[in-house]
User: Which sequence fits this backbone?
């Protein structure tokens, strides 16, 4: 927190002109519970990330009012929705107001003819789909945090979806939204000005700019989403391989096959399989010669899923795949919509169970670079693990991002024993994160395919990744947020203000 | 070009391995550690009450804190209606970690812990339970943590005003003050059974919770008469006190234990071996709290009436035959469905009743449903209970039914009140079964049908939230 | 959907302390895992002796979690699609076609 008592009083008094008392939270537990996100951080430094207060607005007008007041009083605003992100987007670095939009979770309009729904950005996708199912409709934005992350966070981070190869990712599924700019002005942004337009050539294409900014350019408050029919059928075969190479070649062939119902494929490497044998009932009893896995998933009408599925089965067979059976295939896929690692997966090298926080380092990498990136990343984590049991290698996944197999969300899951995470261990981790990001860039990849890249370590390399584009980011930030109100400290954007520190 | 060379090292840390396998290289266990140490914080010789508390709950809460996935949030009844991150199950664990680190005190956090019905949705939905709880024999314990923090608050002299009064009155009268200013007492605890000619004591007794004994007396009357019809022998307790569960839920643990001891002693004094329970809250007390209090000495068999009725129907000892023309849906009581995994038997009973148009909602969807009536919430925050009940009634309303059937007396008062504005009647499953067996139940369904001439309790029933002090 | 936890007590209803506190005799699956109840895998208890100790777990609780997991996964399938196409059926068709010689539906895109 950063505000002295008098300024805090001034702020609360001003906020009371737009919010009820019950919407303004200033107690210590209220603030501590808004400085906590999934990604591991040294617990002894918790108090460094406290906001001064939190607000719970219920409308775009209230959000705009809060941001306008913050801009006038020069108080930071950190937008927060589900708070389930892995790059600390919703974590206050310089105190201020945590603006939590979770109460804005109403369904405003369901347009059955044009197949759209307009929602407050505090709504969760699973909850939305429970309602849409009554109309046979489906909003297919499916991250691993599907049951807990919220639409606004998906916009603010430009989220990635497990079944994006079939339905697109958040940027494709969100048609337009109301957005509160850092000055408190309200803007509608989409393709052109339309609320339900999926493609426009009118003017600059601003929608992308206001997605994935991690709250540094404002707050999305109400969004119009593209809907699909709820799929008639799902198929999710899992195949085992006795070596990584065959599995790698197989996943590439599956993704390149051009099957229309193909919604995604995932490659599990040797470390991931060894990790799953610790505690995953599907893999514990697998024979030792199972060393890599591939799964694919298809959604659509049953007849087309059957035809496409058979094609994929033939491809798998040609690559030496062993089908793992219906029970594992179906059970494992159903668990992928909420597959956050659990703490007791952690092990010391000697085998004892330790409670670990899960961290997932991701990158966007082309197919041809997957083996080299995974090798380099495992070496980085092995170096950590050799030094201390605070770190554990939980293996790697590579997920298809698109329908052609061009690039993959590549992630290495790292267990971190946060209870033991002292300053020295934290330094080791930050350096490792920087090294991991550098590997992605060296292989013509992007530092992140889905989480964002504004945590300590990785963020240092964002200017290198974006080149001149990073300079454009600084210019845009200064222009849209003249007082550096929105989520200051993220993406090194404080540099946009003559290098002055807040 | 693609590089596929993944071989070529003899360093055991550099190759994939599953820790703990017996043929792993010994070297893995011998590498010196630069960071990890036995005690991150050295244990104190003279620990403070907070240190003693967090020592006990540190790891349980840390498992939630370190995950932070928050899959509990959208199934939590309180979170659904308040959308306040401070009142989520994860906050209840994070606060313990913060107390452990000296960042927060019990005085800071006690009031936040009111906001929980102890429905158990969060701990079941948590991946740490649902995916690995049975594997590690280590699951998320939000309900236990909430109870423990509430108890720590009481021990620290931090009371919630309504809870303090409620438990003081319960202590005074040996029953919860469910009728507001109208006193409840030992003299009246069996009034509901008037005219049913039930003996006292015996090998099997029927335990009737405070809400059903004094407020919704139609439920125990239905249960008793169905048992009699089936020829199932049972008696009533010699001197029944409140089960003690509510006191335990609100943090008044000594009182809860005293009440439990009384009931156990009383069962023993009448030679009782088996207790029939019609209320899910009592079922939790008797199968979770009492075993913790009494350990290996606890030799009482506890039978849930809903399971017994389903069995009697299966065995042909009960055959519901009077058609009941209602369009219904079933409310899975949290303490049966979420906390005990009991959801099948109530549906068996309902499917055996002729005439019902049963629009069922599956048990997993209902993990996020709740009446808001548990965990002391209606005593301290009646408005929040009402909002949760209204949310539940809306789900029923969307199914276009006229009746919501529950199996939990404590849910029926708030659901009944919320149902009135939507014209949804809230009925107890035992009552419904009795009706289909041709039994004229009698008794009172509480405030909703105060004009019912068959009611035995003529007291001035005030809703819990309006009781005077 | 799966059975309720009563299956633990051979269909006999009711809670009995002694019965709940005695798990079935474990069988070893691998160096790091055992089984107790049918379909329930458990960590080898020797791996939870140092940093995290196991909780007291009555039988009904293990079975409740195991059953709830199955119910939850079935629910997730229904949530994402109306039906599930069974892989083994497709595999059988593919095997049958390949044993009856080349042909079928054209190139596989390898």
Assistant:
């Amino acid at each position: 927190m950063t505000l002295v008592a008098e300024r805090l009083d001034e702020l609360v008094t001003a906020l009371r002109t737009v919010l009820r008392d019950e919407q303004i939270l200033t107690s210590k537990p209220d603030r501590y519970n808004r400085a906590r996100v999934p990604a591991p951080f040294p617990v002894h430094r918790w108090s460094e990330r406290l906001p001064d207060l939190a607000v719970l607005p219920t409308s775009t007008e209230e959000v705009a009012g809060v941001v306008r007041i913050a801009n006038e009083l020069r108080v930071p605003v950190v937008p927060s929705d589900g708070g389930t992100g892995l790059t600390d987007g919703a974590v206050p670095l310089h105190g201020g107001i945590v603006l939590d939009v979770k109460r804005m979770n109403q369904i405003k309009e369901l347009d059955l003819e044009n197949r759209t729904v307009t929602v407050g950005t505090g709504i969760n996708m699973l909850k939305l789909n429970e309602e849409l199912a009554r109309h046979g409709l489906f909003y297919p934005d499916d991250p691993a945090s599907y049951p807990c992350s919220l639409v606004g966070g998906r916009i603010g981070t430009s989220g990635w979806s497990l079944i994006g190869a079939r339905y697109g990712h958040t940027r494709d599924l969100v048609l337009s939204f109301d957005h509160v700019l850092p000055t408190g002005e309200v803007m509608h942004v989409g393709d052109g000005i339309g609320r339900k337009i999926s493609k426009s050539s009118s003017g600059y294409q601003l929608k992308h700019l206001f997605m994935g900014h991690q709250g540094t350019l404002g707050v999305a408050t109400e969004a119009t989403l593209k809907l699909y029919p709820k799929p008639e059928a799902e198929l999710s075969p899992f195949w085992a391989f006795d070596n990584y190479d065959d599995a790698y070649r197989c996943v590439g062939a599956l993704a390149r096959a051009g099957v229309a119902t193909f919604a995604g494929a995932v490659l599990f490497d040797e470390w991931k399989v060894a990790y799953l044998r610790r505690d995953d009932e599907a893999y514990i009893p697998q024979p030792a010669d199972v060393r890599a896995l591939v799964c694919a998933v298809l959604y659509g009408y049953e007849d087309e899923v059957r035809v496409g599925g058979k094609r994929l089965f033939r491809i798998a067979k040609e690559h030496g795949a062993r089908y793992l059976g219906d029970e594992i295939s179906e059970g494992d896929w159903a668990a992928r919509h909420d597959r956050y690692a659990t703490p007791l997966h952690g092990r010391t090298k000697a085998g004892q169970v330790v409670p670990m926080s899960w961290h997932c380092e991701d990158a966007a990498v082309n197919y041809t670079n997957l083996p080299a990136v995974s090798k380099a990343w495992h070496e980085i984590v092995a170096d950590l693990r050799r030094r201390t049991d605070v770190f554990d290698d939980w293996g790697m996944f590579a997920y298809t991002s698109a329908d052609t197999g061009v690039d993959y969300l590549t992630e290495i899951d790292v267990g971190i024993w946060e209870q033991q995470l002292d300053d020295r261990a934290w330094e080791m981790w930050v350096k490792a994160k920087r090294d991991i990001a550098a590997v992605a860039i060296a292989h013509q990849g992007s530092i992140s395919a889905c989480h964002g890249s504004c945590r300590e370590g990785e963020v240092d390399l964002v200017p290198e990744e974006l080149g001149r584009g990073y300079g454009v980011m600084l210019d845009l930030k200064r222009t849209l947020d003249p007082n550096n109100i929105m989520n200051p400290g993220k993406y090194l954007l404080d540099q946009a203000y003559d290098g002055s520190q807040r | 070009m693609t590089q596929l060379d993944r071989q070529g090292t003899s360093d055991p840390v550099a190759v994939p391995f599953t820790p703990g396998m017996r043929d792993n290289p010994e070297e893995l266990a011998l590498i010196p550690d630069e960071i990890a140490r036995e005690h991150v914080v050295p244990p104190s010789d003279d620990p403070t009450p907070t240190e003693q508390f967090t020592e006990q709950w540190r790891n349980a809460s840390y498992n939630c804190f370190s995950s932070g996935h928050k899959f509990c949030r959208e199934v939590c009844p309180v979170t659904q209606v308040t959308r306040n991150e401070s009142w989520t199950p994860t906050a209840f664990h994070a606060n313990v970690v913060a107390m452990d680190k000296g960042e927060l005190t019990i005085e800071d956090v006690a009031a936040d812990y009111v906001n929980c019905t102890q429905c158990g949705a969060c701990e079941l939905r948590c991946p740490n339970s649902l995916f690995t709880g049975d594997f590690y024999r280590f699951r998320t314990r939000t309900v236990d943590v909430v109870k423990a923090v509430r108890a720590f608050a009481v021990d620290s002299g931090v009371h919630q005003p309504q809870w303090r009064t409620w438990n003081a009155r319960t202590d005074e009268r040996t029953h919860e003050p469910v009728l507001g200013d109208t006193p409840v007492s030992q003299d009246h605890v069996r009034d509901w059974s008037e005219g049913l000619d039930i003996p006292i004591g015996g090998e099997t007794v029927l335990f009737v919770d405070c809400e059903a004994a004094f407020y919704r007396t139609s439920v125990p009357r239905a249960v008793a008469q169905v048992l009699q019809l089936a020829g199932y022998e049972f008696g009533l307790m010699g001197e029944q006190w409140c089960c003690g569960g509510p006191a335990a839920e609100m943090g008044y643990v000594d009182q809860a234990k005293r009440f439990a001891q009384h009931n156990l002693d009383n069962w023993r004094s009448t030679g009782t071996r088996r207790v029939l329970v019609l209320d899910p809250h009592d079922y939790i007390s008797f199968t979770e709290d009492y075993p913790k209090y009494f350990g290996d000495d606890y030799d009482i068999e506890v039978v849930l009436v809903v399971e017994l009725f389903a069995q009697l129907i299966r065995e042909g000892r009960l055959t519901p035959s009077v058609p009941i023309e209602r369009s219904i849906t079933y409310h899975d009581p949290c303490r049966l469905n979420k906390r005990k995994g009991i959801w099948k038997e109530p549906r068996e009973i309902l499917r055996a009743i002729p005439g019902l148009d049963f629009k069922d909602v599956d048990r997993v969807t209902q993990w996020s449903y709740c009446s808001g009536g548990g965990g002391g919430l209606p005593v301290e925050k009646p408005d929040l209970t009402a909002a949760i009940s209204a949310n539940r009634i809306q789900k029923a309303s969307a199914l276009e039914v006229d009746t919501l059937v529950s199996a939990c007396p404590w849910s029926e008062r708030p659901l009944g009140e919320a149902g009135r504005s939507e014209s949804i009647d809230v009925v107890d499953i035992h009552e419904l079964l009795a009706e289909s067996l041709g039994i004229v139940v009698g008794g009172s369904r509480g405030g909703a049908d105060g004009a019912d001439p068959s009611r035995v309790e003529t007291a001035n029933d005030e809703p819990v939230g309006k009781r005077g002090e | 959907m799966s059975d309720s936890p009563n299956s633990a007590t051979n269909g006999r209803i009711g809670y009995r302390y002694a019965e709940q506190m005695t798990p079935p005799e474990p069988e070893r699956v691998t160096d790091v895992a055992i089984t107790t109840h049918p379909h329930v895998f458990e960590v080898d208890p020797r791996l939870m002796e140092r940093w995290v100790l196991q909780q007291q777990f009555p039988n009904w609780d293990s079975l409740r979690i195991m059953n709830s997991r199955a119910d939850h996964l079935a629910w997730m399938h229904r949530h994402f699609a109306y039906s599930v196409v069974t892989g083994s059926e497709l595999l059988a068709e593919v095997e049958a076609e390949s044993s009856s010689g080349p042909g079928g539906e054209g190139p596989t895109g390898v």
